[in-house]
Amino acid sequence: MNIRFKKISSAIAIGLALSVPLIQGCASTSNDPRAIAAVEDKPFNAWFDNLVNQIQADPKYKRIPIDTKVQQNEFLVWLHDAYRKKTSKQELTQKINSTYPGHAYEAAFIASKLP
Predict the structure, then answer these.
(1) Could you report the per-residue pLDDT of 72-110, keeping only the tens digit for each?
(2) With contact defined as beta carbons under 8 Å apart, do 96 and 90 qualify?
(3) Which of 72, 75, 77, 103 could hold 26 in an S-S bridge, CB 3.0 to 4.6 Å?
(4) At what angle do helices 104-112 and 89-99 cross, to 10 degrees?
């Protein structure tokens, strides 16, 4: 499991360098079982990887300021819950917009890519 966390953490570092707003592997420093479940969910991770590629290809997309481990884990759980339909696309968009004002385009972009 630690190898998976390290791999995901590397992907996060690369993603941040490319202004990707999503944080995938910070559960390695957290005991939050929801974040750990998201990291271990292979279909979710495949979707996330595809989302990262789409974000990188969109010049209009601006980085969401997700800078702390707490923010990273929280955002990861939000994404995972929306991916697994525990929350709706609209609820995810509202959470992003209320927590990160000025990123309505990014919130809508992410929500539009959910299955």
Answers:
(1) 999 999 999 999 999 999 999 999 999 999 999 999 999
(2) no
(3) 72
(4) 160
